[in-house]
Amino acid sequence: MTARTESIRRSLNRMLLIASGAGLVLISAGFLAYEFFSFRQSSLEQLQTLSRAIGSNCAAALAFENPEDAASVLSALKADPQIVAATLYDVHGRAFAAYPQGQPAAQFRARGAHAGFEFGRLGLTAYQPVTDGAKPLGMLFVRSDLTSMYGRLGIYTVLMAVGISVSLALAYFMSSILQRRLLRSIERLAETARAVSERQDYTVRAEPTAVEELAPFTQTFNQMLAQIQGSEGKLREQLGRLSLLQSITRATAERQDLASMFQVVLVSLEKDLPIDFGCFLQYEAGARELTVSGLGSAGQALVARLGLSERGVVPVDADGLSQCIAGHLVYEPDVTAVPFPFPQRLAQAGLRSLVIAPLIVEKQVFGALVATRLQAEAFSSGECEFLRQLSEHVALASHQSRLYGALQQAYDDLRQTQQTVLQQERLRALGQMASGIAHDINNAISPVSLYTESLLEREPNLSERARGYLGTIQRAIEDVARTVSRMREFYREREAQLTLERVELNRAIRQAAELTRPRWSDLPQQRGLMIDLKLDLTETLPEIMGAENEIRDALTNLIFNAVDAMPGGGTLSLRTFKVGVAETGERSVLEVRDTGIGMDEETRRRCLEPFYTTKGERGTGLGLAMVYGMAARHSAELEIESMVGRGTAVRVSFPAMSGSLVSNVSAPDAPRGPARCLRILLVDDDPLLIQSLRDTLQEEGHEITVTPGGQAGIEAFTAAHAGLEPFDVVVTDLGMPYIDGRKVAAAVKALAPATPVILLTGWGQRMIASQERPAHVDRVLSKPPRLSELRASLSELVA
Amino acid sequence: MALVLLLCGAMSDTPSEYQVKAVFVYNFSHFVEWPSRSFPVANAPFAIGIVGADPFGTRLEEAIRGERINDHPLVLRRFQDASGIEDCQILFIDRSQAKRLDEILASLDHRSVLTVSELDGAAERGVMIQFAMKENRIRLRINPQSARAAGLVISSQLLRLADIVNSSVER
């Protein structure tokens, strides 16, 4: 780029004007020069001829010295107006005659004896010797004035200047017209180029030009434009596909399940690529068929004609599908030409061109993307490439979604497990705490219970008032014991005493409903409320193994809760139903559902915890905890579903009876004391308890030996066993320092296997949780021991 | 050289009448054409004759010395009478021959001899060129008839300078 730009028109004009001007000036100058010289020459010749003629005519005048005649001859020069002067000199150099007459003779410089001429300031001078034959007679000088010649040349010059000007003007005019034609073409080209550069409009074309040199240029320019347009179109297509790819990728990234991912890909393809029909096929490695796992929504009519359906099966032939399964992208420009079932199926539906792109993850083909169009040969290589890339993206996304699903599942499982563990841990901690409290309370009230019972039985002389007080004490103790045992209901899993029997859930439900009628029917009616009980019982319910009373109690608790949750009345539904199949294990489910206030999330999470209650003073917080204990002991699953304002449903799902049967052994009322007096060894570290036990058992007529610890107990038993009077029965506390009840029992059994050992425990549940029943122990009794239980056990074991 | 001397002499003083006439006589040879038959051979001398007394002295001799007319050397011949005058190309008839003029002319009998005389009325009597003084200048009188009759052609230039005279006596 030069700093200075100049229009072609101006340059051309200038060049043309310079060239033609120079030519014209040269020609004119040449012409003028020619004119000048030829005129001079002709003037000279004319002058010489004239002077020769005059000279020869003057010869006689000179020869015979007749100046008049010479003058008259010279006067003939008048005929030529250019002749301004002439002088005839005689042989002596004297002026003989002159022209014009009457004027002084013009002076001429003397010359030799030869003819000649001279161009001088005053004009052209010719001199001619005058002779008569060989003899010189004189010399004639004639001067011609050249002003006329110069005048003529001046006129010529002016004319030529005018001619040149006119020629130049004409040339300028003509060239302007011609240039306009020429430049018009160039300007059109420039306009086209400007349109291209400013508007990026590559569809414009330069008009064909009549200028020969510009024609190939225009043609090339147009070809270039066509190429740019083509490339730009391709680029635009590519960009479009890229953005489509991106939007599809983004859309798939937002979806985590394959089905919706496939759907969004197909919808995008059918809308934006576009294709007429698309579907996804899934492939299991080694299978000879593909499963339809996603159908485009655009071509519903097509789908109907194709006979494809979700989860439908497409067999693999030696056609494009097998190629695709091998991992290749397949393009069939015209499926009618492919003699295999799948392409033919597409062809019958009116589809012509087909692209199958494999979905590959970790070098494994797991599916294919099928894209079709109604026109034959409708897919460009760019689109095939796009589909291949898209299929790679989809494959990756689906792989990620699978991984994500697995991860989510694992995470959910982990969280579930964590929550369960947390719950169990909390319940276990609570259980331990409750167990410890129960133990201490049981120990503490054992003497009270024993003495009260003993007093009431053994002291007939008691005043009515004392008897009344003792009765009150006994009832209070029993209340305490019941509360403690209810608390224990929660944490114990399955007591040794728990006996399983066939239980008919339907019957238990009916009984519970009947038992609780006052709560859900009578009481609300008194307050003018209506609670509607609906029983929905499945008659063919499998029987389960369990403790019917526990189940009944649990049901009662659930019904109470349901009624409490419906302070404004509502519907109480009791259902039983069966889930699962015989092979995987049937389960019988009972459900208690209310339409009450429901529970919020916090309450729902904590409702199983003991002592957690929403009923304030009225609730113990043990109802659902007890239900949970029951369910745990029955290997049943407890499920609570609740929504605030909509109600709560509690489902207990029992495993169906597996076959093992334990006969219903209900503890019979013990006979009143053994027939004979027994020697009993009491081992306990609690002095109050051991005191009360000794007292009451002695009153029963037994011979009691007490020892304050495990070691002392063993020693006493060993001594007695070695002696004459061994013990008949050993009653030992479980929890003692150093040597506990189990070791005592073991020692006793080691010496005398036949000697029964009764274990007293305030822990009960914990011991039983660790082992079903301790070895060497014949009976476990919980604290506070009931006199009646003791009696029964003694008479049973020593019978 | 002679001319230069002549010119030098002429420059020194005004030329005399006969000096001019001698040059004139010589000059006639340039303005008159003689038929070729007037020369017996190609390089025959061109003779200027003087019949009677010679008024020129040496002037005519000086004027023609070394000069040639074409291939003809110029010679001067003097005649006392008419005998032999026919062999001249130019014959100057002196005043002394006034009485014998007709005889001389008759003896020439149309021969191609240019006759020149300074006798008054000579031209009318048949002499071809007569010198006449007029306004103190030598003028020529020419009788073209006589010249034509003698087969001579007088240049028109010469004729233009001269007074044309016709023969008064028809012969």
Description of the molecule:
The complex is a heterodimer of chains A (799) and B (171). By secondary structure, chain A is of the alpha+beta class. Chain A folds into five domains: 8-154, Beta-Lactamase, CATH 3.30.450.20; 255-379, Beta-Lactamase, CATH 3.30.450; 454-491; 501-655, Heat Shock Protein 90 (2-Layer Sandwich); 679-797, Rossmann fold (3-Layer(aba) Sandwich), CATH 3.40.50.2300. Chain A is rod-shaped. Chain B has one domain (17-164): Rossmann fold, CATH 3.40.50. In chain B, the strands form two sheets. Chain B has an eight-stranded mixed sheet with strand order 3-4-2-5-6-7-8-10. A two-stranded antiparallel sheet of chain B has the order 1-9. The termini of chain B are far apart. Classes of the chains: A alpha+beta (799), B alpha/beta (171). At the A-B interface, helix 1 of A face helix 1, helix 2, strand 8 and helix 7 of B.
Mean pLDDT across the residues of chain A is 82
Oligomer: heterodimer
Strand content of chain B: 15-25%
Q: In terms of structural class, how would the helical and strand content of chain B be classed?
A: alpha/beta
Query: What proportion strand of chain A?
Result: 15-25%
- Please give the count of helices of chain B: 7
- The CATH architecture of chain B can be named as 3-Layer(aba) Sandwich
Strand order of the largest sheet of chain B: 3-4-2-5-6-7-8-10
Query: How would the global form of chain B be characterised?
Result: globular
Distance between the termini of chain A: 130 Å
Shape of chain A: rod-shaped
CATH topology of the largest domain in chain A: Heat Shock Protein 90
